[in-house]
Amino acid sequence: MTRADGPPTSTGPAPAGPPTAPIDPTALPVAPTSAVWGRLRRAFREHGPLLLAVVVLYALATASALVAPWMLGMIVDAVREGAAPARVDVMALLIVASLLVNAALLLGAVSQSIRFGEGLLAELREEFVRAVLRLPLGTVERAGTGDLVSRTGRDINSLSVMVRRSVPVIATGLTTVLVILAALVVLHPALLLACVPSTLLIWVTTRWYARRAADGYLAEMGTYSRLTQGVSDTVEGAHTLEALGRQEWQDLRTDADVRRAFAAERYTLWLRCVWYPPLEFSYLIVTAATFLVAGLLFTQGELSLGQIATAVFLTVQMSKPLDHMIDQVDNVMVGFTALRRLLGVRFAAEDTLPGTEPDPEPHRPGTVAIRDVRFGYTPDVEVLHGVDLDLRPGERLAMVGPSGAGKSTLGKLLAGVHLPGSGSVRVGGVDLAALSPEERRERVILLSQESHVFRGTIAENLALALDEQDTERTRLWHALAAVDADAWVRSLPDGLDTRVGSGQVALDPAHVQQLALARVVLADPQVVVLDEATSLIDPRSARHLEHSLAGVLSGRTVVAIAHRLYTAHDADRVAVVEHGGVAKLGTHEELLDRGGSYARLWHAWHGDA
Ligand code: ADP
Predict the structure, then answer these.
(1) Ligand 1 atom 7: the closest Cα is on which residue?
(2) Which domains does the chain have, with CATH numbers?
(3) What is the pLDDT of residues 64-114, one digit of tens each?
(4) Which of 145, 380, 383, 417 has most ligand 1 atoms within 8 Å of CB, for mutation?
(5) What is the rounded average pLDDT for all residues in the chain?
(6) SS3 of 529, please?
(7) Residue with CA closest to ligand 1 atom 20
(8) Does 406 sit in the ligand 1 pocket, CB within 6 Å?
(9) CA Rg, the chain, in Å?
């Protein structure tokens, strides 16, 4: 009916190949299926007794549900044999009692499976959040926030549906089918023959579906990530797009993303459309085949008429759980794929370069050695072309140079946000590539222009930089004083306990930057990279702040990407970055004496050119 191969189309009758969107090479990784099975096995091991209770309760519930068809068969035989009405009444009462027991057992089974499901879901969520928080910034930058947002929202939701709805339904369904099959064997083992054609049909079609669905759903979710990224770019860059008159261009890009998502959804829908009809057919066949086999057994005198009725009731009863299970397979495939994407974030969080060993040579904390570093955001465009730079512990270096020269990129490499394509960045003698993202952050902190205030008190916002939350107040005040922020914090209604963040006391951007700087003082890393970290503070206060910060950070190595040249004037040395390399290096005076670009820049900025 449809082609098995060929390019997918969004308008043709049958999208027969995996969807069009190429899997984005910069996207966050996806865990292999073996990792998902491994995680699920661990869950089963850790929650073994609870899971066993769920299975046993479901099995008992199913067994109690079989009393009704069994009794109905016996009632048929009893009536045919002209048995006393009292016997029939007892059987009818047994049916009512079995239904009540069934309801009670089901209640227990469902509540226990909810306990199991919610517990597992909470664990997976916590693991995911931990992995997200450990993600190297460079990985998030490369992948784009859309991928992460899509995994955090849509994928977690798909996983919840699988754990909350599909797993209990499938557990009940499977137990029911197994118990019914056992009951058929008890009636007469030959009745199992009636299930053979349906089992074959289900096996063949499900294999066909499962082989294609895994890739289909993975690609489908990839298109959602891309779509989310596009939408967030549109919202964040709305002003830029409007200013450049590029709205239509962005519309077209979004349309293309929507078309890709549509084609991907259509492909998985098509797979289900091909797969469902044979399944529906399979449980009709089983009833017909039971009639046939049971009829044959009746003619051989192996089964009574009542037992035939029971066998048919049983097979009819099997169709409902099968139907429910099949309804859930789609959710399970989506949930399983979502779990692969969620566990994949853990792989990205453990991003250290293989083959790089920590340097055994002891070095003083705060020493920085950058050796022949080359780096590009994409493989074809190199941004840094072999940078060498050495910093002494406690040295203050200002980086200046034209926009786009590579200053921020060098700052990010120094902070371990990105790892160099070749060459090495060593801090305190240790190659950053050999450290985990946490270890890198302990050594070097990069503070950029964008800082965030979290909803909570000022004290809580400051304590973010520390492991312990109940930090001594004097330490917090000391950090605030170091960044000239103690006066305005004291003037707030509740001082350190003033609630800030969205919906609370609003802080102006300069104060937000000061809080971010105070966090650096508290975190006390070996090296601090300030990328325009004081740009929002007015020039006079900023200079004062940089002086007081220098006092507190003395002994710490500070690299300041300078947009105001007095930062360069005050620094121990200045690096002039041009065309992806350090063009000049020296003290402010040396560089002025040498003339050239720095001297021109200084005189132009200072107004004495
Ligand atoms: P500077 O800080 O000196 O202004 P940057 O380090 O920001 O320079 O940029 C150096 C070069 O790298 C520029 O050509 C810029 O376009 C490019 N670049 C910067 N960030 C990215 C990024 N995230 N992806 C791709 N290219 C980038």
Answers:
(1) 408
(2) 33-350 (1.20.1560.10), 368-606 (3.40.50.300)
(3) 888 888 888 888 888 888 888 888 899 999 999 999 999 999 899 888 888
(4) 383
(5) 82
(6) strand
(7) 409
(8) yes
(9) 34
